[in-house]
Amino acid sequence: MKITTDYRMEASPRSSGYPLKVPVVDIVEIGAGGGSIAWFDAGGALKVGPLSAGADPGPACYGRGGVEPTVTDALLITGVLNPDYFLGGRLEVDVELARRAYAPLAARLGVSIEAAAAGVIRVVNEQTIDALKLISVRRGYDPRDFTLVASGGGGPTHAAALMAELGVRRVVIPPFPGAFSAWGMLLTEPRVDRVQTRVLPLASTPPMELERLFAAAETEAIAALTAQGFGAESIPPPRRGLDMRYQGQEHTVEVPVAESGDLAHDALTRAFHERHRRRYTFALEETPVEIVNIRVTATANMTRPSLGTPIASGGDDPLKGTRLVHFDDRALSTRIYDRALLSADFTGEGPAIVEEPSTTTVVHPGQGFAVDAIGNHIIAARVERL
After folding, report:
1. What angle, 0 to 180 degrees and rounded to 10, lies between the N-to-C axes of helices 113-134 and 95-109?
2. Does one domain contain both 98 and 197?
3. Are 196 and 121 part of one and the same domain?
4. Which has the closest alpha carbon to 39: 135, 123, 112, 156?
5. Which domain holds residue 246?
6. 186 SS3 class
7. Where are the alpha helices (DSSP H) in the chain?
8. What does pTM read for this prediction?
9. Average pLDDT rounded to a whole number, residues 295-311
10. 273 within a domain of the structure (yes/no)
């Protein structure tokens, strides 16, 4: 998990967003979900989101008064979602209401309702790919070197299409993906950050002054954790860091400070030059260096939940049947599986759909999938890669 202090809310390729100068998880949001509405802009281009039908009235298929075409409606029309198993069958949805909402959009495009719905899904996928490129290609990372983890209610539905477009080698769908964020919170260590801005020239700042500032910040951070009920024995020594820059520079580079010996002028200068060179490919070793922020991060150790035992092999048949599903411009007979019955040794090929109450996982033609020892579903770019 990467933490950043250079985060911008609502940033996009066309907007710099709003700066948020506090420690946050480094994320990029796209504003496209099941309730996102498909619409045409002034130039006639098809858009999806950020306008949303929300949960009330929700997508047209909910039958609660929504009339705009949404992503959930598109997934129902194309056969990706099972109208009899929405939220495990607890929420009744109406495919005809979804088709009625898409009829005007299809007429304007001059295509069938199914083709219009498939087009909306492609637009959502492209928007998501753009967001993924913001945190991969545009930061110098090759998506082919990474595994895509898909969670939430909609992530597993779109992940296989994103994998094919980005060249990612595999996708991991964790157990109970709809609750994966909550699971992540249970596994994340409690954390308190203290940041104090003190613009100080490094050459003339005594190490003892830095030690005093760090000690004061550590006392505050530890007190914040103990106030939440964590005992002092569960709190390891806080992590230290300095935000540093060349004199006259706008952006800073964070330099970890492991121990008091690292507060010496020469050690901090060498560490900063190295960090700056690693990030920006150069160092201005003759330029004075200054400190901007004093950083302290305190964490607490705690008991974390353990993974459950996956289903043993040899149980009930996980195949629920088949149905026609539209993959772009093709309607294919697709195998439908019940995730709760897939054993740890199961392998399959696309086209396939795996249903569970919180989400629907789509495996495209030519892809393969398998279940690992702890219940993760692994989708591979090609069947032979499993």
Report:
1. 80
2. no
3. no
4. 123
5. 191-299
6. helix
7. 71-77, 95-109, 113-134, 155-166, 180-187, 207-226, 265-280
8. 0.78
9. 81
10. yes
